[in-house]
Structure formats: structure tokens, C-alpha cells
Write a sequence for this structure.
């Protein structure tokens, strides 16, 4: 019986077959287990005579089973190693990583450029009150300029009874900075602003950088020099052409709108990419002017002693020009393919 069992174990070619043979021999009802049970009923002499052979058979069968199981496992591993090959020349899988958004990139660059000119960075709330966003900027409740801002108002007033709104420009930071720091002052204030407006060059949320310089004897020449210097640094070229147009803002007097030429005098494109920018060669970039004496008063300073200039730049438009992007709405779609197209995705 033992020889027969050993031969069967050797011939078994699956783990299941080996297991079945183990149960047949060593299981509770197995023939070796049955033989071992018969030992109890024997006389001591009989038992001494028969026991060693039964124990030896059990050992031999158990060893044979273990050896066969191991051999089958080793063979299975061999087969797996032979079939699963590892190709070290395959490229590593693509692991997507984040990148800096063009708007953030431009804001960082501007902060650096203005830091070199001695400006520090100021901030203000995006949820603003009517007084800071309009009244203190010389736009009384009934001022017609308010209508041009397409303002998002909140339904409730704040504790002091102020109408609350999403700021329509970064200019309220002018007021907050003058009130907090006094004069002289030299700040930029980057941030989000909101207007109910949407087309290829307008989104309901967009970005501005406000600039404010308040000191003694500041004049329009300082403004022009500052704007030229920063735009040359930003576009990294000396042949930037600016067009200054007389304009109107309630909070500056005089007021100047500034366009940048994206074509040189020979009509060659020097800024931006494909497609026609609005203005047939000119892109409207910023509003600016000498801070209105009324605004300086509203902010608690004496306009007889302090003057200054201010400007508000469209950051998104700067990015469009610098990177040749032609639809502002794509800036806020969060589409990685768009970012990658303009070299912003790793
Ligand atoms: N706040 C103005 C706007 O959003 C821009 C501006 C800022 C104009 C500062 C003059 C001075 O249109």
C-alpha cells in the first residue's frame, strides 16, 4: 500500500491531486491514520513490533507529499518567470504634474519688476463695501460711472449698513493702503476683480494689478516713466510703443488710458501670437492718472501736501499678449491641453 501511495504522489501533477492523496493517506479517515488507531487495541508486545513500521510509513508518505508540493511550486514559478518578461527599454509611465498658471506667472513677474522699482505688495478683500469700491473713489451713489462697472451686489448689507459687493477693480486697495499706511506710499495690489461681462476678451472674474505712488511733487512724467519701464521689463524688449490717450476716471485727474502696440512701425507683429487683437494693432492695457485730490482727502491725507499717480493693469491681457493667447475665457477652463499648448504644462 505504501509503495503504491508513494508512486501515486510522485506521479501527481497538480497541487490538488497531491492534496487528495494526502487526505487519502493521512486524513482523519486515511489508511495510515486508521492503522495508527489499531495500535491502541494491541498488547504492548504487538505494539512494539508493529508501531515502528507504521510510524515510518507515515513519515515517508508525509515527506513525499511535502517534496512533491515544493517541486510543483518551483515548476510553476519557473513557468511564470519565463512568461513574464520585463522590458527595461520601455518608457516610464507619464505621471502628470501641475504647473504654474499663466496668470500666476505674470503676477509673480510683475511683483518682481515692481519690487526693483521700490514697490511693496498690498492686498484688500474681494468682498468689498460700497464705500471703498465707489464712494471713496469719488463715485457718489448717483454717479453715472457706477453703471459702467456691471457690479455683482450681495443682497444683504454689512453690520454698519454698507452695501456689499464683489470688488469691480483693485482701486479700493488705494483707499485702504492710504488709510492704513499714510504717506509717502509706493505699492502694487494684485488680485481678482469681478464684473458681469463675458466674451473673448472679458470674463466675469479677471485679474488686475493696481499701482499707487503718493509723495511730494509727483507728476505725470513719473507715471509715464514707470509704465514704460515696467512694460519694457515685462515684455523683455526696448522697442515697446505706448499710446497715451486722454480719458476719464472719477478717481484720477487727469486720466490717461494706455495702449500697447503689438505691431512695430513697419507693421510686423512684435507682441502676441495668431489672430487679430482688438484695436488694429493696439491693445488697451491699463487705466491710470494723477490721483484725484478728492480721493486723497477721502483717504484722510492733505492733498495740498501729497500728490501721486495710480494705474490699474489688466493682468490677463498682459498674459494674452506675452504668450500669444487669443481667448481670455480659456484661461479659466482648467484644460491641461490648453496650458500645454502654450508651454505651461510639464
Ligand atoms: N480702476 C480702473 C478700472 O478698473 C483702472 C484705473 C486704476 C484707472 C487706477 C485709473 C487709476 O478700469
Amino acid at each position: 500500500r505504501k509503495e503504491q501511495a508513494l508512486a501515486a504522489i510522485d506521479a501527481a501533477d497538480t497541487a490538488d491531486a497531491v492534496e487528495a492523496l494526502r487526505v487519502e493517506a493521512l486524513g482523519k479517515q486515511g489508511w495510515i491514520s486508521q492503522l495508527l488507531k489499531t495500535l491502541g487495541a494491541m498488547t504492548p508486545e504487538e505494539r512494539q513490533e508493529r508501531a515502528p513500521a507504521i510510524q515510518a510509513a507515515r513519515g515517508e508518505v508525509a515527506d513525499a507529499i511535502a517534496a512533491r508540493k515544493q517541486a510543483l511550486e518551483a515548476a510553476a514559478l519557473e513557468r511564470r518567470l519565463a512568461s513574464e518578461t520585463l522590458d527595461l527599454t520601455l518608457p516610464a509611465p507619464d505621471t502628470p504634474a501641475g504647473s504654474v498658471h499663466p496668470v500666476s506667472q505674470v503676477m509673480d513677474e510683475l511683483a518682481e519688476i515692481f519690487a526693483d522699482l521700490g514697490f511693496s505688495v498690498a492686498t484688500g478683500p474681494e468682498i468689498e463695501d460700497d464705500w471703498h469700491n465707489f464712494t471713496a473713489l469719488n463715485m457718489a451713489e448717483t454717479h453715472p460711472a457706477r453703471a459702467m462697472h456691471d457690479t455683482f451686489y450681495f443682497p444683504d448689507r454689512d453690520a454698519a449698513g454698507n452695501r456689499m459687493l464683489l470688488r469691480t477693480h483693485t482701486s479700493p486697495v488705494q483707499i485702504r493702503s492710504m488709510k492704513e499706511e499714510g504717506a509717502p506710499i509706493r505699492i502694487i495690489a494684485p488680485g481678482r476683480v469681478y464684473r458681469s461681462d463675458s466674451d473673448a476678451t472679458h470674463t466675469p472674474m479677471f485679474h488686475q494689478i493696481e499701482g499707487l505712488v503718493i509723495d511730494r511733487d509727483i507728476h505725470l512724467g513719473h507715471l509715464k516713466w514707470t509704465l514704460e519701464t515696467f512694460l519694457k521689463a515685462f515684455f523683455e524688449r526696448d522697442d515697446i510703443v505706448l499710446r497715451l490717450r486722454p480719458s476719464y476716471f472719477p478717481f484720477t485727474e487727469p486720466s490717461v488710458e494706455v495702449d500697447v502696440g503689438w505691431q512695430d512701425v513697419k507693421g510686423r507683429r512684435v507682441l502676441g501670437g495668431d489672430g487679430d487683437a482688438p484695436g488694429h494693432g493696439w491693445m488697451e492695457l491699463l487705466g491710470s492718472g494723477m490721483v484725484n485730490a478728492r480721493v486723497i482727502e477721502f483717504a484722510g491725507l492733505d492733498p495740498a501736501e501729497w500728490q501721486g499717480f495710480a494705474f490699474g493693469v489688466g493682468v490677463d491681457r498682459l498674459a494674452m499678449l506675452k504668450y500669444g493667447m487669443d481667448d481670455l475665457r480659456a484661461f479659466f477652463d482648467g484644460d491641461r491641453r490648453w496650458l500645454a499648448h502654450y508651454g505651461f504644462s510639464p
User: Anything to note?
Assistant: The pocket of phenylalanine is lined by residues 169, 171, 249, 252, 287-289, 310-312 (CB under 6 Å). The longest strand covers residues 205-215.
